[in-house]
């Protein structure tokens, strides 16, 4: 299974929904919360992201709660 990283922030409903989806589908992920680790803000901006969550795998990056793309990670 691909390594999955979720960049999130506090009080973000889409972040919560994404993490819940991954957990319910037994997809292991690493979370980086930008409220606790603000150094990731520049990392995400450098890659063109302006909203959270950002989901990163070895082969793809996307933002927002995207069940269609998240399902592909659960396969």
TrEMBL record:
InterPro entries: GlrX_NrdH (IPR011909), Glutaredoxin (IPR002109), Grx-like_ET (IPR051548), Thioredoxin-like_sf (IPR036249). This is Glutaredoxin-like protein NrdH. It comes from Secundilactobacillus folii. GO terms for biological process: cell redox homeostasis. It comes from the Bacteria. The keyword Oxidoreductase does not apply. Gene3D superfamilies: Glutaredoxin (3.40.30.10). Keywords: Disulfide bond, Electron transport, Redox-active center, Transport. Electron transport system for the ribonucleotide reductase system NrdEF. Belongs to the glutaredoxin family. One of its GO terms (molecular function) is electron transfer activity. Residues 4-55 form the Glutaredoxin domain.
């Amino acid at each position: 299974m691909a390594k999955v990283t979720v960049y999130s922030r506090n009080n973000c409903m889409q972040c919560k929904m994404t993490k819940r989806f991954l957990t319910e589908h037994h997809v292991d992920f690493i979370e980086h919360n930008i409220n606790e680790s603000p150094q990731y803000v520049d990392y995400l901006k450098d890659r063109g992201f302006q909203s959270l969550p950002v989901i990163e795998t070895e082969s793809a990056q996307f933002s927002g709660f995207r069940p269609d793309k998240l399902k592909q990670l659960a396969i």
